[in-house]
Amino acid sequence: MSTPTIEQIVASLSESEAFRYFVHYVYTLRDQSIAELSNADGPNEVMKLAGSISMLDFLYSQLTTETSA
What we know:
single chain; mainly alpha
């Protein structure tokens, strides 16, 4: 038995309402982090938020592959 690809996993999960809520939650967290950038208190907080945004962007892109659209 071969290990499924991320695309196969997402395609399988994409029918689930709970999965769709999770994807929306990731998207919302990303938007909130972007909004928080304007209130950052210095370069360390900006870097922390940038890391969070980058991670959430990656996760969102993996969860919304072509097969789940």
